[in-house]
Amino acid sequence: MSFLGKDFGRPRAGDLVAGFSVAFVAIPQALAYAELAGLPAKIGLYAVALPSLLAAAFVSSRYLQTGPVALTSLLTFGALSTMSAAQENVSNYIALAALLALMVGVIRVLLGVARLGRVAYLLSEPVTVGFTAAAAVLIVASQFPRVVDIDIGERGVLEGAWHAVRGFADWNWVAVLFAVATVVLTLSSRWIHKLFPG
Length: 198
Description:
Layout: E1 2-3, E2 6-7, H1 13-36, H2 41-56, H3 70-80, H4 84-88, H5 90-113, H6 125-147, H7 157-166, H8 173-192
Antiparallel strand pairs: 1-2
Helix pairs in contact: 1-2, 1-3, 6-7
């Protein structure tokens, strides 16, 4: 079977392991990134499935996964969360997020065609490091209430994380143990087996 000049023969065992490994990582990541962007979690499934299917026809990489990333999700939330049209209802927010993704994609293609990728080097290293560190804080803060299973209501990311920390007595310890087990399993995966998707 071939598509756009690519030969898709019978899948090998390594391909199946790679597919399952990516799925086990990409699906929960996509759900979390969608919520990080202020979108319903199910939108993350579209954001990870469609780009992966389209990219498979044109390019492959042993190291990269096509789909949403944390920084893009944060930037989407930052761009749309203050817009009144986005706050009116969920469908407006989803439509604006889709439009933003389309605009960014077109701009990136134009930058690539014009060979203007070097403009990224105009950002100084302190700015990049500061942005990345702040993004890490926001990501951890956004996910912490889910780890301890605390409802933060309409609170913002940092306020919600602080609310979850103060609500220690209401933590769901089954959820906490599940999160701890996930971290331990991920960190110890290299000692379990070389094919274990850590």
